[in-house]
């Protein structure tokens, strides 16, 4: 069956509106994606029928809420092919997931060790490691990238050495769209016994990941980038790693026993889930996962690849149009500049015509620094974008450029 983008669009009520008198063309999906009716309905149903706190009460609503939440844990486990459900932890998002690991490693890291990340990371996969290294005296190293926005793997053997405790990097760059050679990097890390973490913020909505096939120690997803609610993420960790990591936060739900003198911690995953979880978000995320899997991640990826090809070709005919990030292996993100214009002005004039793009550093200041630019404008495509929208975007961009020159 061919990909029916118009049927998919019907499932996203937010898309059907006018902005400044023009149809909304939403091309800011790398920042956050919209929510299908199934997600909105699941949240409404939860509050209409089942709402109660989880893991505590014996009463029916509490049991229903607990069952619904744990069913999503099971679904996530299957989605990424984790070995066991206990290896799936719910967090507040990727940022929270990475902080959980980086904080915990503070108890394990020695000053002579190092942490390796890349020149292509989101701030949430830079700052927690900087904080960890500051606390422990360990060194932070970066795998560099070339002018196409691809990692320079010739440095891998030198940078990742026997003192490397952790290698952490993203699967797909939110700023440039580069798809990184995950297995090559993981294999070097494993050869020296380093722990590994992959930031899957941009893989979640665009690619299927099998954590056992990768044999990665930690993997993290963000619900709001995957058509689910904000404020929710997943941290997958191998059991033997999670058991070594001390918990990030203390409180209810994460303990086995508490006396005035001392507490003992619950087993994973609860050890890392202090406090009342984002129950509504977890249930909405479950609906988002079902939705993605019904449409099919491979079908979505193929549609987005076609959009990327079309947009790259058609936009490149605009005089002075320059793409930042031209990796061979690339996801549906176009970061760009147009000669003689400022990205911020382009963003404002595009919005006036109903087109939503992101402008600025995209939480990746070091990447912008390497290209010696202050920022870019960025169009990023999702399962519900169309070829007609790319035509509308191109026409709006040409009008904006004419006005600014
Ligand atoms: C969005 C994003 C993050 C941050 O995710 P949150 O869940 O919003 O904290 C991290 N890394 C990448 C590559 C992202 O695109």
Task: Please describe what this structure looks like.
By secondary structure, the chain is α/β, with parallel strands linked by helices. It folds into 2 domains: 5-31 and 297-404, Aspartate Aminotransferase, domain 1, CATH 3.90.1150; 40-293, Aspartate Aminotransferase, domain 2. It is built from 14 helices and 17 strands. It has helices spanning 5-10, 37-50, 60-79, 94-105, 127-136, 156-159, 182-191, 211-214, 239-244, 279-295, 297-315, 343-352, 365-370, 387-404; strands at 18-19, 22-23, 25-26, 88-91, 114-118, 139-143, 164-170, 195-199, 218-222, 233-237, 255-258, 263-265, 321-324, 333-338, 355-356, 358-360, 376-380. The strands form 5 sheets. The protein has a 7-stranded mixed sheet with strand order 4-10-9-8-7-5-6, sandwiched between helices. α7 (182-191) links the parallel β7 and β8 (195-199). It is globular and about 70 Å long. Bound molecules: pyridoxal-5'-phosphate (PLP).
Secondary structure category: alpha/beta
Strand portion: 15-25%
Euclidean distance between termini CA atoms: 46 Å
Name of the level-1 CATH class of the largest domain: Alpha Beta
Largest sheet: 7 strands, mixed
What binds here, in terms of ligands, is: pyridoxal-5'-phosphate
Instruction: Determine the number of helices (DSSP H or I, runs of at least 4 residues).
Output: 14
Would you identify the CATH architecture of the largest domain? Answer: 3-Layer(aba) Sandwich
CATH superfamily descriptor of the largest domain:
Type I PLP-dependent aspartate aminotransferase-like (Major domain)
Radius of gyration: 22 Å
In CATH, the topology of the largest domain is named Aspartate Aminotransferase, domain 2
The tally of beta strands, per DSSP, is 17
Shape: globular
Low-confidence stretches: none
Q: Roughly how much helix do the residues carry, as a percent range?
A: 25-40%
Task: Count structural domains.
Answer: 2
Mean pLDDT: 97
Strand order of the largest sheet: 4-10-9-8-7-5-6
